[in-house]
Design goal:
The structure is a single chain. The protein has 2 domains: about 60 residues, 434 Repressor (Amino-terminal Domain); about 130 residues. The relative contact order is 0.10. Helix 7 runs antiparallel to helix 8 and helix 8 packs antiparallel against helix 9. It has a two-stranded antiparallel sheet with strand order 1-2. With about 200 residues, the chain is mainly alpha-helical.
């Protein structure tokens, strides 16, 4: 008997509706419906709660192969969440570009490094780029940090790709405007993200 059939049988034996079971497990009724229709499995924590509620072992609910597959899937999801969190933090850190002395200003024959708001040698358009790119990157970072607990692997992939593309564009923008310090720091963040992306692809 498959897990979905076992869960349905246990629920009916206990006289519970899907809504009542969902309340007992502190999850949505949609999740119960999904499990009972064979379209998915609960995570390890929910599986433990089901086992406790119906006084059956986890081995009785899932075969060894299905349990291993579930554990691997949850492990992959947890790693994706961690990587997404790191991406978000790196993107948020880019806000320091607004305050660190990373921008060149000509002072006679000497090029001095100043912060963005200390009037670096730049046109209005260039200055706007220096201001907007870190803010956009930080906003993406905040979104990743806030939502990494709730979204699926497809979102992780989209958000990481967007983060890397925005970072690459920012590097090109700072290189084109001859800001080596800012470009180098962005490139360091970029390489960390690439390494994480490679590691993420290897665990799939």
């Amino acid at each position: 008997m498959e897990f979905n059939e076992k869960l349905q049988q246990l629920r009916k034996e206990k006289g519970l509706t899907q809504e009542q079971l969902a309340e007992e497990l502190f999850i949505s009724r949609t999740a119960i419906s999904k499990w009972e229709s064979g379209k998915g499995y609960p995570n390890i924590e929910s599986l433990k709660n089901i086992s406790k509620l119906f006084s059956v072992s986890i081995d009785d609910l899932l075969s060894g192969e299905a349990l291993i597959s579930l554990a691997e899937s949850e492990n992959r999801t947890n790693i994706n969440k961690i990587f997404s969190l790191i991406f978000g933090i790196l993107d948020l850190i880019v806000l320091i570009f607004l305050f660190l002395p990373l921008y060149g200003r000509q002072d006679g024959e000497v090029m001095r490094m100043v912060s963005l708001f200390a009037d670096p040698d730049a046109s209005v358009i260039t200055w706007t780029i220096y201001l907007v790119l870190p803010i956009l990157t930080a906003v993406l970072g905040i979104v990743q940090i806030i939502t990494q607990q709730f979204l699926n692997e497809r979102w992780y992939s989209i958000s990481r790709t967007g983060s890397i593309l925005l970072q690459a564009f920012s590097i090109l923008a700072f290189v084109a405007t001859r800001q080596p310090y800012a470009a180098s720091l962005l490139f360091l963040f970029f390489m960390i993200k690439v390494v994480l992306l490679i590691k993420s692809s290897r665990i799939k």
